[in-house]
Amino acid sequence: MTTTQTEPKQRSTRAPSAVLLGLLGAVVFVGLWWLAMIVFGIESYLAPTPLEVFDAFTREGPYLLQNSLVTLTETVQGFGLAVVLGLAIGTLLAGSRLIEQTFMPTLVALNAVPKLAFAPLLVAWMGFGPGPKIVLVVLMCAFPIVLSTTAGLVSTPAELAEMARSMSASRWQMFGRIRLPGALPQIFVGLKVAMPLAVIGALVGELFGASEGLGFVVQNSGTDTGMQFAAITLLALMSIVLFYAVVLVERLTVPWFKGTTG
Known about the structure:
The chain is globular and about 70 Å long. It is 84% helix and 0% strand. With 262 residues, the chain is mainly α. The protein has 2 domains: 13-42; 44-261, MetI-like fold (Orthogonal Bundle). Helix 8 runs antiparallel to helix 10 (225-253). The model has no long low-confidence stretch (mean pLDDT 81). The two termini are 19 Å apart.
């Protein structure tokens, strides 16, 4: 049997094993958490046991699900805008050395400003709707996408560029057929870094001013640590699902990249 024939079988067996290993890691984490609660005698008003978190899920399941959908919507919308802006800005920076030298220091300075400082201002400017949360998501995750796009587009092998010029390829043909496909692996690195940051951005926005969302649940649960940890658990699960959604898109878009690095 050839290598190309065995590859699909290896992938089909690798996926279930990866899921099982992930579940095993989660079980081990919960077990260590529960053990720490017992050994150190931590009171439930400081941190809940896994059983108390499960009880919060069963008690307030529809309420938590409704607020999860709010946070998920804000995260996906903000991430989509960040992808569009990041790809556009990264392409501009990669296309002109002058533009990169002019604007890259400003982008670095903006990225260095703690995003927490923008949250109260955005609420004052835009109100308590989804707008401030979406803007915070964009601020949190646009910069990694800009950097990865710029790095990917400027790393086109010189021999490929020379070959395209020798075939009289136009600037757009060189970009669409050589530079962009070659940059995709690097771009997806930035997208995978940015995806968890998008969830954090939505959460920060909800903590500073919201009437719904998982951040609102965390802030308004008072001493009900079980409810707070249930919301935090949903945020963690959301990050995992969205991250691996980006990984799936990567594998469908650049399947050859896994093959060349395996």
